[in-house]
Amino acid sequence: MLHGLFKAIASRHEREDDLTSKDKSSVTAAIRVLRDNRVAFSEHTYAYVDRGGTAEGSRQLGLDEHSLVKTLIMEDELKKPFVVLMHGDKEVSTKALARIMGVKRITPCTPATAQKHSGYMVGGTSPFGTRKAMPIYMEETIRDLPRIYINGGKRGYLLGIDPKELVRVLNPILVKVAV
């Protein structure tokens, strides 16, 4: 009897990515979306550094910055907001993205505007569970990675997931705009 109990406990601890691991996370809107969609994820926390970006997160967690995905809230010239998902070590070619979108220009939102649209503070923005539904554009090479690390809805909190699950849940428009 005890052997079976220990085996069950050991099995539970081996499933770090289990989507029911409620005991170690605070529940953000992003976590709720992932759980509702039965997405397995791992949680990774680090000491948030203002303006540290993905470089700081990758350094503290010992991860390749290319596998960290930043969530950017941008807008077109008509102030229509949208989300861009980009590799941590790359920038967005706003000219190329504007051409793809058929708009004159795009710019990053101010922190206050980004928070108004997403419901998240800058530095803790997740594409999951945004306050407003917005179109999502994703650098297409992100889906080719074996695992990505994306913000879980608060500063210093990343979620490791299979990028195919991100595509399944968010259905982003795939683009090639990395520079």
UniProtKB/TrEMBL annotation:
Database matches in Pfam families: tRNA_edit
SUPFAM superfamilies: YbaK/ProRS associated domain
Enzyme class: lyase
Lineage: superkingdom: Bacteria
BP terms from Gene Ontology: translation
EC number: 4.2.-.-
InterPro entries: Prolyl-tRNA_editing_YbaK/EbsC (IPR004369), YbaK/aa-tRNA-synt-asso_dom_sf (IPR036754), YbaK/aa-tRNA-synth-assoc-dom (IPR007214)
Gene Ontology MF annotations: aminoacyl-tRNA deacylase activity; lyase activity
Ranges for domain YbaK/aminoacyl-tRNA synthetase-associated: 55-168
Keywords: Lyase, Protein biosynthesis
Residues annotated as transmembrane: none
Sequence similarity: Belongs to the prolyl-tRNA editing family. YbaK/EbsC subfamily.
Database matches in PANTHER family: CYS-TRNA(PRO)_CYS-TRNA(CYS) DEACYLASE YBAK (PTHR30411:SF0), CYTOPLASMIC PROTEIN (PTHR30411)
Protein name: Cys-tRNA(Pro)/Cys-tRNA(Cys) deacylase
Organism of provenance: Syntrophorhabdus aromaticivorans
Gene: ybaK
